[in-house]
Design brief:
Elements lengths: L6 E4 L2 E5 L6 E6 L4 E5 L5 H13 L3 E6 L19 E3 L1 H15 L8 H6 L4 E2 L12 E6 L6 E6 L4 E5 L18 H15 L3 E4 L8 H16 L15 H16 L1
Parallel strand pairs: 4-5, 5-6, 6-7, 10-11
Antiparallel strand pairs: 1-2, 2-3, 3-4, 8-9, 9-10
Helix pairs in contact: 4-5
Bound molecules: zinc ion.
Length: about 260
């Protein structure tokens, strides 16, 4: 059977896009039949298609990764098996401490068995992905969510960015970030990793072959807001971004007047 959802976007890197908010699931292939599944999502049929696609490709899931603690990034499917699912220590702790609150939105989308399976994570041992594939560096930052991870497959230059560097979503700071300061620190921390990459896969949107353009666009948007200028970022025109943009304007206002 042909591959149904996952498509190869770089050697050894597959991605699928959900019907909901263009959310991406990413698969890294280790070269010996193993696959690491990052942020699988979203609807039950889409989740079920991931292990089916892996089987079609003669791959078996050897591990999972959740880039951050948000409910749409910590999903899983029984067909993927009981491989270890990794996340940052902070992500694991937040899900341990606030599981019900963090996963509450899932009742709208998933069956109780899939909700029960969500967010069962273990902390990564260090700053590289523990797998048999090419060296993959983990970069932790706090912009969009505390303990958010980006993964850089170094040789291929593929950056799995989680909910950063999207072509459809403007920067979405963590709710605790009242002045954009935390977001700015996080995106700055990410800069050298973005500069070292040749393909970016965002958590929502499409893969992009000019990762620094995405970084520049986000920085320009933030700079404009913080300087009190009107941003001409085309993403603002999407009604899905209206509330977020309004909240970011308030944050920028606080930063200027605080
Ligand atoms: Zn998120």
């Amino acid at each position: 059977m042909a591959c149904r959802r996952l498509r190869e976007v770089a050697p050894g890197v597959l991605m699928a896009t959900s019907r909901r908010y263009a959310t991406t699931s990413t698969v890294l292939v280790d070269g010996s039949g193993g696959a690491v599944v990052i942020d699988p999502n979203w609807d039950p049929d889409e989740l079920a298609a991931i292990p089916a696609d892996l089987a079609d490709l003669n791959l078996r899931c050897v591990a999972g990764v959740a880039t951050h603690e948000h409910y749409d990034h910590v999903l899983w499917h029984p067909g993927l098996g009981d491989a270890t699912r990794w996340a940052s220590e902070r992500t694991v702790r937040d899900l341990d401490d606030h599981r019900d609150r963090l996963l509450a939105p899932l009742v709208e989308y998933l069956t109780p068995d899939l909700i029960d399976l969500a967010g069962r994570l273990r902390p990564l041992p260090d700053e590289t992905l523990p797998w048999a594939g090419p060296r993959t560096r983990l970069v932790q930052h706090d912009a969009h969510a505390p303990g958010h991870l980006a993964l850089l497959v170094e040789e291929a230059g593929v950056l799995v960015a989680g909910d950063m560097l999207s072509d459809v979503e403007i920067p979405m700071p963590d709710p605790a970030d009242e002045t954009l300061d935390t977001y700015l620190s996080g995106i700055e921390r990410l800069r050298p990793t973005v500069a070292a990459s040749r393909l970016v896969i965002p958590g929502h949107g499409t893969a992009g072959e000019r990762p620094m353009d995405r970084w520049d666009a986000d920085m320009r948007y933030l700079d404009d807001l913080l300087a009190g200028r009107v941003s001409d970022d085309p993403r603002i025109g999407d009604p899905e971004n209206a509330d977020l943009h309004a909240a970011n304007l308030v944050r920028a206002d606080r930063s200027r007047n605080g």
